[in-house]
Design brief:
Strand 3 and strand 4 form a beta hairpin. The strands form 2 sheets. Strands 1, 2, 3, 4, 5 and 6 form a 6-stranded mixed sheet that branches. The chain has a two-stranded antiparallel ribbon with strand order 7-8. It contains 17 helices and 8 strands. By secondary structure, it is of the alpha/beta class.
């Protein structure tokens, strides 16, 4: 038994309700189990129960042991003075509210059907890729789809919260916030951090002053990235170094450390300098990019903002400063554009809608994800093997959330699919 399971059992009334008695042998009728409280305070609010002949409305607290009440500090917390029922598995001690009164105690363990706990243990104790791997095919697709829809919104809400924190740190500047988000996306997973550090060290207002010169943009970006510290091995790098020295002094810039960048097991097309050159080309071509994203009418128009970006000729034949290489594609590939639309544009639209209270941008964000093909990665492919297919990015994003936040942590009782399996007849 754990509190997640007891919360689940209480919420869905998966216990014998006909013979309930308190620890003092008073009959209990659960009129309403209330609503799960995700904030500080008792576990359930708006609980309505009848104890003996008296009907009570208040809150309920769930614990494995009654002594957890003391351990969690509820006896001195006035927020728990309204607890009308303390639901426990083991009543190992008497507990009291901050006002000195004693809440009624329901020892719920004897009323829980054995098969509920058995199905729960079967899920959390197996060593499958996900707990419900063997049972998933037996779940009605309607429940799976409902689960994925909730996972997508939950993922967007989490990302939106992160954007909100970044926006606050940028004093409410959406253009600067979007610039940092976009720069991080250009690093993909492996180089996301150094790209973000680069963006934070080089404000967009400085790049805006040199937007009419791709050469100066490259000098600023490559210099701040720490790629112009070594002695120049060709004329173009020497010129970039000279330009960066001037701009660094002018704006009192401090570059990030070049050792932060990772190259291991990357295709040359994804090398940091290639991505930086592409990013420089995007900045050079895109004026008021965030405003244009907000004004774009559909996904096709959004895609055009990132397609056809051609980096300068030098980087089309160099994947490191001064190091010639085989020909490199000059523009962002379709997969890279999709990655930007999924991880930056859709998140920015959703966040902007939330912080401006405009549902139009919520809708555009989800519609955009629905228009993009599903991502291809090991998690999405594995779910496909066990029967959950994704054809668009809204589903693949939901699957990533499901795997990371629920399956990996075995939070089956908090998942619509897991709850259905546990509660199946």
């Amino acid at each position: 038994m754990n509190e997640d399971l007891i919360n689940f059992i209480w919420r869905f009334r998966l216990f014998n309700q006909k013979t309930l008695l308190t620890s003092r042998n008073e009959p209990v009728e659960i009129i309403s189990p209330g609503f799960c409280n995700s904030h500080a305070g008792p576990d359930f609010t708006e609980v309505k129960v009848r104890i003996g002949s008296t009907t009570w409305i208040g809150t309920a607290e769930i614990h494995i042991r009654a002594s957890d009440w003391e351990r969690h500090g509820h006896s001195t917390d006035k927020a728990y003075n309204n607890v009308i029922l303390h639901v426990v598995c083991e009543n190992d001690m008497r507990v009291f509210r901050a006002d000195g009164t004693e809440p009624s105690v329901l020892i719920i363990k004897p009323y829980i059907p054995e098969n509920i706990q058995e199905r729960y243990l079967q899920l959390i104790q197996n060593m499958n890729w996900i707990p419900c791997e063997k049972q998933l095919s037996q779940v009605d697709p309607i429940y799976v789809q409902d689960c994925l829809q909730r996972m997508l919104i939950e993922r967007m809400e989490e990302k939106s919260a992160q954007v909100g924190e970044l926006l606050h740190s940028r004093q409410g500047d959406w253009s600067e916030t979007f610039y940092i988000l976009l720069c991080r996306t250009f690093g993909f997973q492996l180089n996301a951090l150094p790209f973000e550090l680069l963006a934070r060290s080089l404000p967009i207002r400085i790049l805006d002053k040199h937007r009419d010169s791709l050469f100066q943009l490259e000098a600023l970006l490559f210099g701040q990235a720490g790629f112009l510290e070594e002695p120049a091995s060709d004329e173009y790098i020497r010129r970039l170094q000279e330009e960066y020295r001037y701009l660094r002094h002018k704006y009192r810039l401090r570059p990030i450390e070049s050792y932060l960048w990772k190259h291991l097991r990357l295709r040359p097309q994804n090398f940091p300098v290639v991505r930086l050159a592409q990013f420089a080309a995007l900045v050079y071509r895109s004026v008021h990019l965030f405003s244009r994203i907000l004004e774009a009418e559909d996904a096709a128009e959004l895609r055009k903002l990132f397609e056809g970006i051609s980096m300068s000729s030098y980087w089309q034949s160099h994947n490191k400063p001064g190091k010639a290489s085989a020909k490199i594609a000059a523009t962002l590939g379709k997969e890279s554009v999709n990655n930007i639309l999924i991880n930056t544009v859709s998140v920015a639209l959703y966040s902007y809608g939330k912080y401006t209270d405009n549902s139009h941008f919520f809708t555009r964000s989800i519609v955009l994800l629905e228009s993009i093909p599903a991502e291809v990665n090991r998690i999405v492919l594995k779910y496909r093997e066990i029967g959950v297919k994704s054809t668009s990015a809204d589903t693949s994003q939901a699957l990533l959330q499901l795997k990371k936040k629920y399956c990996d942590q075995k939070k089956c009782v908090n998942c619509a699919v897991g709850a259905r399996i546990i509660n199946s007849a």
